[in-house]
Amino acid sequence: MNKTALFFSPEGGNVNRVTIQLGEVIGNEKVDIIPAKDMVKEDLHKYSQIIFVCSTVGADHWTNEIYVDEWQEFFRKIEEISFEGKKVAIVGLGNSVLYPEHFADGIAHLHKKIANKNANIYGFVDAEGYTFNDSEALNEDGLFYGLPIDEENEYDQTSERLENWISKLKSDFEF
Questions:
Q1: Peptide bond into 35 cis (omega under 30)
Q2: Which pTM value belongs to this model?
Q3: Distance in angstroms (rounded) separating the CA atoms of residues 122 and 158
Q4: Where are the beta strands (DSSP E) in the chain?
Q5: What residue ranges do the domains of the chain occupy?
Q6: Does the first or last residue of the chain, that is N or C, have fewer Cβ atoms within 10 Å of its Cβ?
Q7: Residue among 157, 115, 159, 169 at smallest CA distance from 139
Q8: CATH fourth-level superfamily of 4-169
């Protein structure tokens, strides 16, 4: 059985908790959970299935000179690596109350980077049932490029959303 890599950033807080919860839903023995900052190129060659878990950085970080975008470093490390033949999905955390105009935009950022690396991307989610004004993470069909989670305001829906999403991914991923 091939394990699924769960790459996530940032460590600590909601993204970390949701990644651990996602691993539990899939089955801890079936996943390797790896912080994006700790990834080495060889890690990508070991996995045919990858799930990225990210956050949408809020305005309080946009001008923070100390904040380091670990995803930028992740993609610098793998510039010459193709994702061709790999199955990829994305979970993105956002805050629909504080940032309703940019809800889960981090999904779009990762989607664009991964799509440019020839990945097969799965796990698109209908926007119905979410409360927000706008999101870069929506495609022209009204689907998110991955699973949005609002752990701040809709934490009571996280478990069900993760379980439903993994249930749908099982038709494409081998868990």
A1: no
A2: 0.92
A3: 19
A4: 4-8, 31-35, 49-55, 87-93, 120-122, 125-126, 143-144, 147-149
A5: 4-169
A6: N
A7: 115
A8: Flavodoxin domain (3.40.50.360)
